[in-house]
Amino acid sequence: MFTGIVEEIGTVVAVERGTGDARLTLRGAVVTQGTRLGDSIAVDGVCLTVTDLDGDRFGVDVMPETLARSTLGALAPGSAVNLERAVRADGRLDGHLVQGHVDGTGTLLSRTPGARWDDLRLALPPSLARYVAEKGSIAVSGVSLTVTGVDDASFGVSLIPTTLEATTLGTLAPGDPVNLEVDVIAKYVERLLAGGAVGGQGAPGERS
């Protein structure tokens, strides 16, 4: 589990492509501190398992499903990525609950600079639009953001100076792809409603 508060911008060192899968080697001086083999690190919002450690470098395996649903398949040596270690159970939840399970990809449509912030408009896949709400949370390439507005095809966010400086969203240009993860609570609520769990009969085992 993650918070969407990026710890550092890392760099892709090497990409080894297999038959439908890939192996990435990345550099991150902050996220490798205290990290052990088997730990989880979010790379541009994708939860990946650390399989190798060498100083400030770590390796991860990326399966075909992840490559198909995220932007990781387009990474190359030198690419910048947002990095975050899994949140500790006794840590602060400063962003929102982020699983690192990317739901799909979007594209930056426009960028409007403000006095000390930027307003971004991003394309939203129709299948995800119902999970996005104004003033709700969404993870964009692993960054926890508050939705400023939404319609059936796009949504808006505002980036404060810290986000502009500390994440790859600061250099995002119109046409660039991003990973999107919607609020998991919205998906569970939809599932419960579809299954008829919310109604007058109550849940199994519940006293009347």
Describe the structure.
It is built from three helices and twelve strands. The protein has 208 residues and is mostly beta strands. The chain folds into two domains: 8-85, Elongation Factor Tu (Ef-tu), domain 3; 104-193, Elongation Factor Tu (Ef-tu), domain 3. The strands form two sheets. Strands 1-2-5-4-3-6 form a six-stranded antiparallel barrel. Strands 7-8-11-10-9-12 form a six-stranded antiparallel β-barrel. Strand 1 and strand 2 form a beta hairpin. The longest helix is centred in the C-terminal third of the chain and has 11 residues, at 184-194. The radius of gyration is 18 Å and the shape is globular. It starts with 7 loop residues before the first strand and ends in a 14-residue tail after the last helix.
Question: What's this entry about, in short?
Answer:
The protein has 208 residues and is mainly beta. It has helices at 64-69, 161-166, 184-194, and strands at 8-17, 22-27, 40-43, 46-54, 57-62, 80-85, 104-113, 118-123, 137-140, 143-150, 154-159, 177-182.
Structural features:
six-stranded antiparallel β-barrel; mainly beta; Elongation Factor Tu (Ef-tu), domain 3; disordered C terminus; 208 residues; 3 helices
